[in-house]
Amino acid sequence: LGGMNIMLSEATGITVPQMKAQLNAIAGTALSAIRNRRSRIAYLFAYNNGPGLVFGGDARNYVDFFDAFVFAGETPDVYGEEIFRRDVTPEKYPLLVVPMTPCVDPATYEHFKKYVAAGGTAIVTDGTFLRTTTRYQSTDFENYLKKGDFGKGKVVVFSSKDELKDLIGKVREYMPEQA
Fold first, then answer.
1. pLDDT > 90: what percent of the chain?
2. Among the listed residues 134, 133, 123, the one whose alpha carbon sits nearest the alpha carbon of residue 159
3. Residue 47 has what DSSP assignment?
4. pTM confidence score
5. Is residue 6 pLDDT above 60, yes or no?
6. Maximum distance among all alpha carbons in the chain?
7. Packed helices 16-36 and 2-12: angle between N→C axes, nearest 10 degrees
8. Residue 37 pLDDT more than 80?
């Protein structure tokens, strides 16, 4: 750091402490929008479905779904199950993405259904919500989809086999309007 300080001082006449003071003076204005920006898309990553675990998924598929939104112009906020249940509502996140998640806590599955009933749109992949972590009990997700009683919201099922370029085109139609 001493050498850097000398180089800055000689090249610009500004010392490291002066540079830090100047950066700190504008950081609140310049960086607050970036730091406080929230997506309008929530992305559920359930730990139990991570690569190498009991219901381990293919990490590439998780990344492809995430990247499809990024390339379509929106970076989703990624949440684990506990924060998903606590913080994800249709008001905060009009769109929820749940890729390759065959096994979740029963409370997570119930929160998902409440989210949709309250007006949220959910994009899930085939094979999602098959079982709960309580003795790997089956869920009623297949019947839930067949019945189609989603309240104010909707559920869209994508194939987990879709290629990234196809996903980008498909997700655009579900992107929430910017506030």
1. 35
2. 123
3. G
4. 0.73
5. no
6. 72
7. 90
8. no
- Determine the 3-state secondary structure of 118 from DSSP: coil
Beta bridge partners of 121: 95, 154
Q: Residue 101 pLDDT more than 70?
A: yes
From 80, 20, 13, 93, select the one nearest 44 (Cα to Cα). 80
CA distance 132 to 103: 5
The model's pLDDT over 107-136, given as tens digits with 9 standing for 90+, comes to: 999 999 999 999 999 999 888 999 998 888
H or E element in which residue 104 lies: strand 103-104
Q: Are 155 and 116 in contact (CB under 8 A)?
A: yes
Closest CA to 59 of 48, 51, 47: 51
Which of 147, 95, 145, 141 is closest to 120 using CA atoms? 95
